[in-house]
Write a structure and sequence with these properties.
Shape: globular
CATH architecture: 2-Layer Sandwich
CATH topology: Alpha-Beta Plaits
Number of domains: 1
Largest sheet: 4 strands, antiparallel
Helix content: 40-55%
Strand content: 15-25%
Number of helices: 4
């Protein structure tokens, strides 16, 4: 039993050090802010319809719900055709609230339904989302 207590005590003693090590390399000026990487695998046969819907409608809804788009790219590896973009968020609560509002928008749902009815699936899979926090040695980190 004494051994168990020693292991638990030793583990608890190390926890703050481990936490400090995890944040040591994060840019201090991040605060709660982070970027979100979004990747959509586009159905190649519906490339034009996808880009039209994104440009004409999704971007309008992004503006409506105050999404801050940093940049956007198309990547064509031959195997995959992807739309990749980065969003800036001041904090996680803002991101979650704005995505929730966007997804619940009835007009957006109708636009999606009409485009799928007309063109079929525009995406081959569920969009991937990944949170990114700038590191301290990034050239744009304000120390």
């Amino acid at each position: 039993m004494k051994t168990l207590y020693k292991i638990v005590f030793f583990g608890l003693a190390l926890f703050p050090i481990g936490t400090a090590a995890q944040t040591k390399y994060l840019c201090r000026s991040n605060g709660d802010a982070f970027h979100e990487l979004r990747i959509y695998e586009v159905n190649r046969s519906n490339r034009e319809a996808f880009h039209e819907r994104f440009q004409d409608h999704a971007m309008r809804f992004f503006k409506k719900y105050k999404f801050k788009v940093i940049d956007m790219w198309e990547s064509d590896s031959g195997d995959k055709l992807q739309l990749i973009y980065i969003l800036y968020w001041p904090n996680r609560a803002t991101m979650e609230a704005r995505w929730k509002e966007f997804r619940a928008d009835k007009e957006w749902a109708e636009i999606r339904q009409r485009s799928v009815a007309k063109h079929g699936d525009l995406l081959l899979s569920t969009p991937a989302s990944q949170s990114m926090v700038r590191v301290s040695y990034s050239p744009v980190c304000k120390k």
